[in-house]
Amino acid sequence: MHHTRQLAGSPERVPHNHRVLNHLVTALLRSPLHGLISRDLLLITFTGRKSGRSYTTPVTYSQQGEQIVFHSTQRWWKNLEGGAPVTLRLRGRERAGYALPTQDVPTIVEAIRAFLERKGLKRAGMIDLALVDPSRAPTDAELEAAARQRVLVQVRLEPTAA
After folding, report:
1. What DSSP character marks residue 74?
2. 7 — pLDDT class (breaks 50, 70, 90)
3. Euclidean distance between CA atoms 113 and 71, whole angstroms
4. Which CATH architecture has domain 16-157?
5. Residue 9's pLDDT band (boundaries 50, 70, 90)?
6. pTM for the complete prediction?
7. What is the rounded distance in angstroms from the CA atom of residue 5 to the CA atom of residue 8?
8. Which long-range contacts (CB under 8 A, 24 or more apart) does 24-30 make?
9. Backbone angles phi, psi at 33, to 5 degrees
């Protein structure tokens, strides 16, 4: 099921234009053309805590070995609180994993800083980060303010069958 309705634990609805974009990105990530965007985007599928329904949404991610990290400013992550099994569509393949979100500000600041160092300031919008001055790196205070508005989700991938 796609991310087209209000998610469990989320009082706000995803804006209509955001839903349309999510549908397009989801279709592309599931298609043979996924390589155009799958280095930066993946699909995460999780089960709603209250509804029991399956939800899928695209996210911008980073990978270090068997660990996937992404940020969210949306409230759907609450379905992952305390840890939850998830399925990722990662570079054209389905991978099982275990997601654990954190709201620890120092951890999130370091993740944002690492993302900007790897991807560059021009890619800040990919993680919903509005820079005060896009020509310079954000200050520690700016990073801390941004970190308080988001969650960091770490997904440990299950081993693949050989």
Report:
1. S
2. very low
3. 12
4. Roll (2.30)
5. very low
6. 0.80
7. 9
8. 25/58, 26/2, 26/56, 26/57, 26/58, 29/58, 29/89, 30/89
9. -90, 10
